[in-house]
Amino acid sequence: MEQPLDQINAPEPRENEDVFGKILLWNLGIMLGYVTLSGLTGKSESVFLDLILMILQVAANLLLAIISFVQGKRNAGLGFLLSLFLVVIVGFGVCAGKITVLERT
Questions:
Q1: What CA–CA distance (Å, rounded) separates 27 from 62?
Q2: For 36-70, how does the pLDDT look when each residue is reduced to its tens digit (9 = 90+)?
Q3: Do 11 and 69 touch, CB atoms closer than 8 A?
Q4: Which of 43, 59, 63, 84 is most buried, with most CB under 10 Å away?
Q5: Secondary structure of the chain in the HEC alphabet?
Q6: Sorting pLDDT into bands at 50, 70 and 90, what band is 105?
Q7: Taking the CA of residue 81 as centre, how many other CA atoms within 13 Å lie in the half-sphere pointing to its CB?
Q8: Which of 64, 46, 21 is CA-nearest to residue 102?
Q9: pLDDT digits over 86-104, tens only?
Q10: pLDDT at 9
Q11: 6: phi then psi, degrees, rounded to nearest 5
């Protein structure tokens, strides 16, 4: 027998490299979805709904980033961390734009 049955020295599986981009795209897609759906109402409450949903998404991204870093999944952790900042930056612009549009109507 050349190979042991219980491979103690087996290499650890590598982390998927493209998980970083998938996390970013999914987060921006989710944000686009709820911003679009709340924007269809055309009411001023849609800005408040967007704000609440963005806060929940940022909190979820922070929690998932911490869990990913603890588990040793560096790319996933960085993806969630960058998604957190992108949701904050893009979300601020979306909310400011919606307020401007709603004030003009």
A1: 12
A2: 998 888 777 888 999 999 999 999 999 999 999 99
A3: no
A4: 84
A5: CCCCCCCCCCCCCCCCCCHHHHHHHHHHHHHHHHHHHHHCCCCCHHHHHHHHHHHHHHHHHHHHHHHHHHCCCHHHHHHHHHHHHHHHHHHHHHHHHHHHHHHHC
A6: confident
A7: 11
A8: 46
A9: 999 999 999 898 888 888 8
A10: 65
A11: -100, 105
CA distance 58 to 43: 24
Token pair of 16, please? 């998927």
Tokens of 97: 């734009």
Q: What token pair was written down for 39?
A: 């924007």
Tokens standing for 41? 């109402």
Q: Would you list the domain boundaries of the chain?
A: 19-35+43-104
HSE at residue 100, side-chain half, CA atoms within 13 A, is: 6
Give, to the nearest 10 degrees, the angle between helix 19-39 and helix 74-104: 20
Q: Do you know the residue count of the chain?
A: 105
